[in-house]
Amino acid sequence: MPNVIVFDVNETMLDLQALDSHFARVFGDANVRRQWFHQFVQNFLVTIVLGSYVEFGTIGRGALDMVAARLGRSLTDDDRKRILGTIRELPPYPEVRESLECLKAAGLRLGTQPGKSQKCRCRMRV
Length: 126
What we know:
Shape: globular
Helix content: 40-55%
CATH architecture: Orthogonal Bundle
Largest sheet: 3 strands, mixed
CATH topology: DNA polymerase, domain 1
CATH superfamily: Putative phosphatase, domain 2
CATH class: Mainly Alpha
Radius of gyration: 16 Å
Number of domains: 1
Strand order of the largest sheet: 1-2-3
Number of helices: 5
Strand content: 5-15%
């Protein structure tokens, strides 16, 4: 059994549904959040393949603008700030805290990988 577990954060531990009200307000459809996140992941994977580092917010904004363009929508700076700013306040899924506490109690070291490329320094929490 490994003694260290590193978790991805977004959509694994944090509930992106908290963004739905912003997507519903801006796009008229909360489900656009799923399109945005898929585009985000695609853009993020491209940066990994290319071996380049791009900040999370830059990838998120680019993905948001790409989805808006596909849907024929114009975004204001306020729209972008509300959607992307809320990411910093995403709640964890209900079971995350208890699950992490169980793993820690079992003697495992836990860390998070916030979604950066190879240059990421995992944040280890003991």
